[in-house]
Hints:
Elements: E1 2-8, H1 10-22, E2 28-33, E3 40-48, H2 53-63, E4 67-71, E5 89-93, E6 96-102
Antiparallel strand pairs: 1-3, 1-6, 2-3, 4-5
Bound molecules: ligand 2BA.
The site of ligand 2BA has 12 residues, from strand 5.
Amino acid sequence: MKLVCAIVQGEDAAACVRALSSSGISVTRLQSTGGFLQQGNVTLLTGVDESRLDQVLQIIRENCRERNRYLTPSPPMVEAGEMFMPYPVEVQVGGATIFVLNVETFQRL
Length: 109
Ligand code: 2BA
């Protein structure tokens, strides 16, 4: 068995969860926050038999897309009379960041 841990963008999460569930694949949705942008994203946890791993990855691929986000840098310390213009920096965020882990044991009690 494998545990798929996929970090996806909030806009894609609902469609992704729907597509997984309607294919009979169990999924848990966790609200999360990216360390770099400090913006909300969603972490999906899915435990599946190895034979369905490709299907899970395909569903995530089909439902998640890359987008550009903007990060406004925080102002540095400035001397009196100096000015800081915070120009937003464009950052490309991937459709999904996916980790696939081997599951040692799986129990439903
Ligand atoms: P964030 O950490 O908010 O990162 C958002 C995007 O900012 C990243 O997109 C990447 O394009 C850029 N970025 C991240 N760290 C950077 C840095 N130190 N310098 C310059 N640019 C940086 P993605 O790579 O597609 O990642 C999307 C989200 O997936 C991340 O949100 C984070 O929540 C998660 N993630 C990505 N790689 C990870 C990893 N190795 N371990 C754990 N979570 C990860």
